[in-house]
């Protein structure tokens, strides 16, 4: 009985700390890592993580793959991005993906990484949304910039694919298909992924 009490107490302590290591579920959940912060002079607001479905919060999970650590695997159907670790584990992030007609899949590599990037809408987007013409030479970085706090630029054999892994101020878009094809993460999550991923890393979009 005493052993059971110790185990239950340890499990409760882990949950209260914002992570869980019980059973077959996630090995660690970073629910407490979405608070307000200052980053490169920008005041990132707190994400109301209690409003984000639990499965889309950053967490370490068991993930078997033949891909080497450092690889990024994007599951557009489930709205998850996996950063492969060793020993059959991965960091899993909730993502937003391209809406109908803007989906894509394939293999690319991270060619560039940028903190607080400038966003330049493509010509095709400006044609669809003429109000974006004012940003044809680039929208300055900031809290309302669609690329958010970080962007990683994906290139394939043909060069720049036009697709990005990037942050977004629209935390409530995570888990939905509503972008123009890019893979978006919550700003606090893209900062975490940016710090883990290296230029040259393989990115597989399923």
Describe the fold and architecture.
This protein has one domain (2-205): L,D-transpeptidase catalytic domain-like, CATH 2.40.440. The strands form three sheets. It has a ten-stranded mixed sheet, with helices on one face. The protein has a two-stranded antiparallel ribbon with strand order 2-3. The chain has a two-stranded parallel ribbon with strand order 8-12. With 206 residues, it is of the alpha+beta class. Strand 10 (150-156) and strand 11 (159-168) form a beta hairpin. The chain contains three helices and 14 strands. It has helices spanning 2-16, 123-128, 187-196, and strands spanning 28-29, 37-39, 42-44, 59-62, 72-75, 80-84, 89-94, 97-98, 106-115, 150-156, 159-168, 177-179, 183-186, 202-205. Helix content is 15%, strand content 33%. Pathway: Cell wall biogenesis; peptidoglycan biosynthesis. The active site is at residues 166, 182. This is L,D-transpeptidase. InterPro entries: LD-transpeptidase, LD_TPept_cat_dom, Transpep_catalytic_dom. Residues 70-206 form the L,D-TPase catalytic domain.
Distance between the termini: 47 Å
Strand content: 25-35%
Radius of gyration: 18 Å
CATH topology: L,D-transpeptidase catalytic domain-like
Give the class from helix and strand content and strand pairing: alpha+beta
In the CATH classification, which architecture applies? Beta Barrel
> Largest sheet, order of strands side by side?
1-4-7-6-5-14-9-10-11-13
Succession of helices and strands: HEEEEEEEEEHEEEEHE
How would you sum up the global shape? globular
Domains (count): 1
Low-confidence stretches: 1-24
The number of E-state strands comes to: 14
What's the CATH H-level superfamily name? L,D-transpeptidase catalytic domain-like
